[in-house]
Design brief:
CATH superfamily of the largest domain in chain B: Aspartate carbamoyltransferase regulatory subunit, N-terminal domain
Structural class of chain A: alpha/beta
Largest interface: A-B, 26 and 24 residues
Strand content of chain A: 5-15%
Distance between the termini of chain B: 30 Å
Radius of gyration of chain B: 17 Å
Structural class of chain B: mainly beta
CATH class of the largest domain in chain A: Alpha Beta
CATH superfamily of the largest domain in chain A: Aspartate/ornithine carbamoyltransferase
Oligomer: heterodimer
Largest sheet of chain B: 5 strands, antiparallel
Number of domains of chain B: 2
Largest sheet of chain A: 5 strands, parallel
CATH topology of the largest domain in chain B: Alpha-Beta Plaits
CATH architecture of the largest domain in chain B: 2-Layer Sandwich
Number of domains of chain A: 2
Radius of gyration of chain A: 19 Å
Strand order of the largest sheet of chain B: 2-3-1-4-5
CATH architecture of the largest domain in chain A: 3-Layer(aba) Sandwich
Shape of chain B: elongated
CATH topology of the largest domain in chain A: Rossmann fold
CATH class of the largest domain in chain B: Alpha Beta
Chain lengths: 317, 155
């Protein structure tokens, strides 16, 4: 039985909700909690589950920001467990345009559904939702903040091939704004992983996050060029370099092309190297890499379903 | 603080009733007033001395507020800016209570989160909430860390 991670001391929670299991931030989890969720996902992946485990349960998918994979995989996960889902797909289609606060929306939807899955453009939105909800809340991404279900499926994909403990993991791309990279780095710090960061100038990992990782006992090594480290890595996690972060398209293409992974760069890498990417990709990985045994990102995307089945089941069982 | 011979330097009138905040970090007196919500438009009678010589601190600021006794939670906010401050509660010219300041564990509604994308900077019915850590103030909503210029973020 998994422990419900307590909210940070000092935040209000509705009466009786102290035992409720919200999934808001990787920071709330200990290693044993993550391992338990990954074990559960593995059970569901090998079809050791009953298709009606969540029959009669209803999940509200509140997506106030665009999403394809996350929303569809939550809906798929719910359907595979025999439950139903209702959804809001955009701010325009919701009462947010009439000026309703998220807090009110959450209180209302708590009365309809058995769990709320929330994607919202503001950081901390899911934490706020968990204070007003009377049903469990799962954070499906809050602005540049946390995206714990993505992190869990990243961990799950690594663990399918090798034990996570003690690996050398490279994070490549936009490490300044990329929330998936921050969440994953925090989780990996629980596993004694050595982290290699490779980022273009101006998109380096924020100093306070690097500090937090080191305080958690993690070795964080900064590199400027993927060539200098790629042969030492067990996992290379590539994130999208976002065009909107650059002043003009010329400087974007300049940086983006120098950070592209091509089959040539993969000569001499470790045999078991796995290349992951949260997708969508925008040129960071040459499509020719897809044919190599290192490319694992589509498998990673598929793993979104068993991992989200595990999350939905744990909060609603 | 008591009246001294003008040739000896400092002169600030004693107050009959109220609070004297002594040993404020030099230069922080006006920020201390801000954190207490005392502005030019409030009614308190104030005396402020800045960069006063101090044996213990070299230089210090002193703030006197007449007819107002500060509550503990107000006092603890001051600790953010002036951790060495001493609070003297004055009644009928006598110091009836003298206390130091303690940095609180949590700050609710005191500091605005500098992250424009933080949910606490919207119309949602929540107050900013920061936990006080040795390395700075940590927003419990968006995980932003304020490392310096805390005074600049006071609401």
């Amino acid at each position: 039985m998994i422990r419900a991670p307590p909210p940070p001391a000092g935040l209000k929670t509705p009466e009786g909700s102290h035992t409720m299991y919200h999934i808001i931030s990787i920071r709330d989890f200990e290693k044993s909690d993550l391992d338990h969720l990954l074990d559960r996902a593995e059970e569901f992946d090998t079809e050791k589950y009953r298709p009606r485990m969540l029959e009669g349960k209803l999940a509200a998918l509140l997506f106030f920001e665009p999403s394809t994979r996350t929303r569809m995989s939550f809906a798929t996960a719910m359907a595979r467990l025999g439950g139903d889902s209702i959804s809001v797909d955009s701010v325009e289609a919701s009462s947010i345009v009439k000026g309703e606060t998220l807090a009110d929306t959450i209180r209302v939807v708590s009365g309809y559904a058995d769990a709320i899955v929330l994607r919202h453009p503001k950081e901390g939105a899911a934490r706020l939702a968990s204070e007003f909800a009377t049903v469990p809340v799962i954070n499906a991404g809050d602005g540049a903040g946390q995206h714990p279900s993505q992190t869990l499926l990243d961990l799950y994909t690594i663990r399918q091939s090798m034990p996570i403990d003690g690996l050398d993991v490279g994070l490549l791309g936009d490490l300044r704004y990329g929330r998936t990279a921050h969440s994953l780095a925090l989780a990996l710090s629980l596993y004694g992983v050595t982290l290699h960061t490779i980022a273009p100038g101006g998109l380096e990992m924020p100093a306070n996050i690097a500090l937090e990782l080191r305080e958690r006992g993690m070795d964080v090594i900064e590199h400027t060029d993927v060539e200098e480290v790629i042969r030492e890595l067990d996992v290379l996690y590539v994130t999208r370099i976002q065009r909107e972060r650059f002043p003009d398209s010329a400087s974007y293409y300049n940086v983006a092309s120098s950070y592209q992974i091509t089959p040539d760069q993969l000569r001499g890498v470790r045999e078991h190297l796995m290349i992951l990417h949260p997708l969508p990709r925008a040129g960071e990985i040459d499509p020719a890499v897809d044919q190599t045994p290192y490319a694992r990102y589509f498998e990673q995307a598929r793993n979104g379903v068993p991992v989200r089945m595990a999350l939905l089941y744990e909060v609603m069982k | 603080m008591s009246r001294k011979d003008p040739s000896g330097g400092l002169v600030i009138s004693p107050i009959k009733n109220g609070t004297v905040i002594d040993h404020v970090t030099a230069g922080e007196a006006l920020n201390v007033l801000r954190i207490l919500g005392i502005t030019g438009s409030t009614r308190e009678c104030l005396s402020i001395a800045t960069n006063v010589r101090s044996k213990r601190m070299g230089r210090k600021d002193v703030v006197k507020i007449e007819n107002r006794e500060l509550r503990t939670e107000e006092v603890d906010r001051i600790a953010l800016l002036a951790p060495q401050a001493k609070i003297n509660i004055i009644r009928d010219y006598q110091v009836v209570e003298k206390k130091g300041v303690e940095i609180p564990h949590l700050l609710r509604g005191v500091v605005r989160c500098p992250n424009p994308g933080c949910i606490t900077n919207t119309n949602e019915p929540v107050e900013s909430t920061f936990e006080v850590l040795p390395k700075g103030l940590h927003c419990l909503y968006c995980d932003w860390l304020i490392k310096n210029d805390i005074a600049g973020h006071i609401i």
